[in-house]
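Re: the 229-residue chain
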Amino acid sequence: MDNTSSDVLPALPSVRVNPEADWGPSDFDVRHTFSGGITYSLPRWTLEPVWSAIANGWSLDSVFVVRSGLPVNVLTGTTAFGVSSALRPDVVPGVPLYLDDSTVPGGQRFNRAAFVGPPLDASGNPQRQGTLGRNGLRGFAMSQVDLAVRRDVPLGRGTSLQFRVEAFNLFNATSFGPPTNTLTSGLFGEATRTLSSSLGVGGVAGGGLSPLYQVGGPRSVQLAVRFQF
């Protein structure tokens, strides 16, 4: 929990809006996660030399993760006190925050009808921050299984070659990034990117991380050869 997770995000002036209203889940808060890794070396077989060379030395490695969704901070999309992208809406009582919708990615979206802008004063500025808490909604959960099949070939004198086939997101499970969080957007409440793309926002050139090395992307396979000594 914190009242800001970054020192570059816009914030409303504390003389106008109580900063304690921003106390909420951190941007990187994941409430539930289960992950692990397994390595299994296949039993060795006593066979003819040729068949033994083919059948022995194989191993399997797997890494898996299942976790709940990241927080989403819903904003009105309007400017308040000269600051944009900082004003949250009020919650409409009795209206569901989420809607099941088979026409959108992930089959679920935020309900636009559940939010309305806070009341304004004579100058057009909000009288307070919206009643929806900071990071008050959640995006999509994710799950992924990675698998590697490898074989070590002894070369003698403590050296060996390792051949690997690695599959990331083995079952090609679809994981979406956080839904659009701005009420003024025509795509409000809908996911528009995979999780890997959203985690790599900006790419390497923009100071982000490459989606190629993030979880939540489509299945990918790579081959590797390593000399061990």
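DSSP finds two helices and 13 strands in the chain.
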